[in-house]
Each structure stands twice: as C-alpha cells, then as structure tokens.
Amino acid sequence: MTTRSKTPGTIALLLAVVGLAGCSPAPEPWLQGESPRHLEVQHLRMKFVAAFAPGTAELSRGEAARLDAFLDQSGIRRNDHLYVEASTEDRMAAARIGRIARELDRHGLGAQTIPAEAEGPGANQLALLVDRYVVNLPDCPNWALPPNDDHDNQPPANFGCSTTTNLGLMIDDPHDLVVGRTPGPAEGDPALNAMARYRADKVKPLASSAGSSSGGSSGASSSASQ
Q1: I want to staple 121 with a disulfide (CB 3.0 to 4.6 A). Which of 58, 116, 125, 178 is the partner?
Q2: What span, in angstroms and rounded, lies between the C-alpha atoms of 75 and 83?
Q3: For residues 138-154, b (16+ Cβ closer than 10 Å) or e, as one string?
Q4: Partners of 81 in the beta sheet?
Q5: pLDDT tens digit sequence for 124-167
Q6: Which carries the bigger pLDDT value, residue 37 or residue 194?
C-alpha cells in the first residue's frame, strides 16, 4: 500500500481556502426594528366633567360656557366617539344626560351613554368623554440592511410597506383597525332588480365612458324615431 504525499500546491490551496473563510464577515444580527412595518393606532381620550346644582338638571351659565370651550378646543372630528358617563346612583341622571345632549345638538354632535367606571363622576356630575383614534404610519422605506447580501432569511423591512402606508392613509375610522364593525343586513333590492331586468330583456347599458353614453343617446333617438 502506497501513500501519496500532498504536493506543495495542494497545501497552498488549502491554506488559501482557510484564509478566505476566516476573512468572510460574520452575518449581522437581525434586529426587531428592521422587521416589516405595521400600523400603530393611538388612543386619545379627552374628558370634561360638568357640574350640576343639587336637585337640578340645568347647567349654570359658567358650566355651559366651559362645555362650549371644551368642544371648541377639542376640535371634534367626524370619526371621534363621544360618550356621556353618569353615576348609577344619580336619580337625575336621565334628565341631566338630556341636558348635555341638547348642548351637543347645538354643535351638531351626538353621544352614547355608557355605565360609569369605578373612578367615574361624583355626585351631581356628568362626564363627557371624547375618544379619538389616530393611526401612525410606518417609518419606511428602511435601508438599514443592504438588500443584496442579507442572508438571514428574514422578510425585508420594506416588504409590504407601501400597501401598509396606503391602508393607513385611506382608512375611514382608525378605530376599525382595533375593533371591526358589525355589518348590518345587506340590501338585496339592487340584485333583485338586476335579475328582473335581465329576465325582462331590459338590461341597462354600461355608461363608464363618454363613448358609451353617446352610443346610448343615439340608440335612444333611433328607438324614438321608430
């Protein structure tokens, strides 16, 4: 049995491979901040406490002025949620809620009544709560890591960033991103009317462009001449 000794060329090649492996940079650690961006919804709550005189459901002139100033300074938005909170032990709660409702109506606003919390309004008081939800857009694009040699097999930070940003810009009520709405019953008349027109051979032509609308007018004039 004979053994072959390694030639100097083979040894030099092995040393070069080992040297190159030692010079390759270590993979950069993956950071949570570099993960794909998400929308953040911030909940803001503004509170006004209205005081009533004992045994009455009327606001004094000063309290009414304070309420007007609060509503003006709050800058109530269309998607803000207003709630009136009354103590469960207040025998005049219904009348006082009605008084606040009339003040809100003057500003074109409405509110829902909710049960009082543990630290709710005290005696002869009502609390008006304004809940506002604000959506914070993601900070992107993010080029913290080079896109061409990221070998950590993680989703890039810019993945879906434009879609997420567009959703945050066009959302009607940011509260829907936290809790969705319960849809009401669907309106079936449009579908039923379409089926009736189809069965009666009275399908309406599409009018999505100027050409189609002009074609419809010409058809109407020809039918009228007949």
Answers
A1: 125
A2: 16
A3: bebebeebeeeeeeeee
A4: 131
A5: 899 999 999 999 998 888 777 666 766 667 777 788 888 999 99
A6: 194
Mean per-residue pLDDT, 65-86: 91
Sketch out the chain's domains with CATH numbers.
41-133 (3.30.1330.60)
Place of tokens 């083979």: 10
DSSP string, 58-73: PPPHHHHHHHHHHHHH
Mean pLDDT of 198-203: 92
* C-beta separation of 78 from 211 below 8 A: no
Kindly list the distances between the CA atom of residue 146 and the CA atoms of 27, 161, 165, in Å, as whole numbers in the listed order: 12, 17, 22
Token pair in block for residue 74: 């709050």
Is residue 199 very low, low, confident or very high in pLDDT (cuts 50, 70, 90)?
very high
Write out the H or E segment, with its range, that includes residue 33. Answer: none
Element spanning 48, H or E: strand 40-51
Neighbouring C-beta atoms of residue 33, cutoff 10 Å: 10
Which single residue is written with the structure tokens 């309004």?
121
Average pLDDT, the chain: 78
First-last CA distance in the chain: 110
CA distance 129 to 81: 8
Q: What is the largest CA-CA distance in the chain?
A: 115
pLDDT of residue 215: 43
The DSSP symbol for 145 reads S
Closest CA to 164 of 188, 143, 135: 135
Residue 181 or residue 110, greater confidence:
110
pTM, full prediction: 0.58
